[in-house]
């Protein structure tokens, strides 16, 4: 083989080696970017899972409380009747005078719970009003006073006119 042929052969071998290195380098760069993307996705998934686990720990006690205190499914009318009876029964017991009641429309916009509402107007001393509110507000029964308007009584300065909206959450009967 002549020296020119040897040089040409070395030149082609070096060129082939360079091309193979370039192709191999590109393959490994692509492979590395895929592995990096998978790693980032795995880290993100892990962080989301840890966040969900932390939230679960946070919410688990609330879920247990709700499971323990969730009422049985019911129609709105019996719940409204029970709410009115309870509110009106407590009025004379705590030393208040009942003036009037106004039934408000049932709120059926909730996904899992609906609410019945009633607005009551009572008159009495401040201490009796607070005692009445204390009896009405019951998280275990999913009941609370959501609106209170107090104003002085026109006939007697020691009494207070109070208009209160009481709401009771209940689980609606599933529709067939």
Q: Largest sheet, order of strands side by side?
A: 1-2-4-3
CA(first)-CA(last) distance: 95 Å
Order of helices and strands: HHEEHEE
What's the mean pLDDT score? 87
**Proportion of residues in helical segments:** 40-55%
Largest sheet: 4 strands, antiparallel
CATH third-tier fold name of the largest domain = Alpha-Beta Plaits
Total strand count, please? 4
| Overall number of domains | 2
Q: Return the structural class.
A: alpha+beta
CATH class call of the largest domain = Alpha Beta
Stretches where pLDDT falls below 50 for ≥5 residues? none
Shape, principal axes of CA atoms: rod-shaped
What is the beta-strand fraction?
A: 15-25%
CATH architecture of the largest domain: 2-Layer Sandwich
H/I helix tally = 3
Report the CATH superfamily of the largest domain: Ribosomal protein S6/Translation elongation factor EF1B
Radius of gyration, in angstroms, nearest whole number: 37 Å
Could you please describe the fold and organization of this structure?
There is one protein chain. This protein is α+β, with helices and mostly antiparallel strands and 176 residues long. The chain has helices at 3-69, 76-93, 126-136; strands at residues 97-107, 114-124, 143-152, 160-170. The protein folds into two domains: 1-69; 76-170, Ribosomal protein S6/Translation elongation factor EF1B (Alpha-Beta Plaits), CATH 3.30.70.60. A four-stranded antiparallel beta sheet has the order 1-2-4-3.
């Amino acid at each position: 083989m002549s020296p020119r042929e040897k040089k040409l052969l070395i030149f082609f071998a070096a060129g082939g080696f360079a091309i193979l290195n370039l192709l191999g380098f590109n393959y490994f760069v692509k492979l590395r970017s895929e592995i990096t993307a998978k790693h980032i996705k795995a880290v993100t998934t892990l962080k989301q899972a840890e966040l969900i686990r932390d939230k679960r720990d946070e919410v688990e006690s609330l879920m247990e409380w709700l499971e323990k205190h969730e009422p049985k499914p019911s129609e709105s009318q019996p719940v409204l009747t029970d709410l009115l009876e309870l509110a009106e029964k407590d009025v004379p017991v705590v030393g208040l005078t009942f003036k009037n009641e106004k039934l408000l429309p049932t709120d059926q916009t909730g996904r899992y719970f609906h609410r019945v509402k009633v607005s009551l107007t009572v008159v009495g001393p401040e201490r009796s009003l607070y005692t009445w509110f204390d009896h009405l507000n019951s998280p275990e029964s999913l009941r609370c006073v959501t609106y209170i308007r107090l104003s002085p009584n026109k006939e007697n300065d020691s009494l207070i006119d109070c208009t209160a909206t009481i709401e009771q959450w209940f689980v609606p009967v599933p529709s067939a």
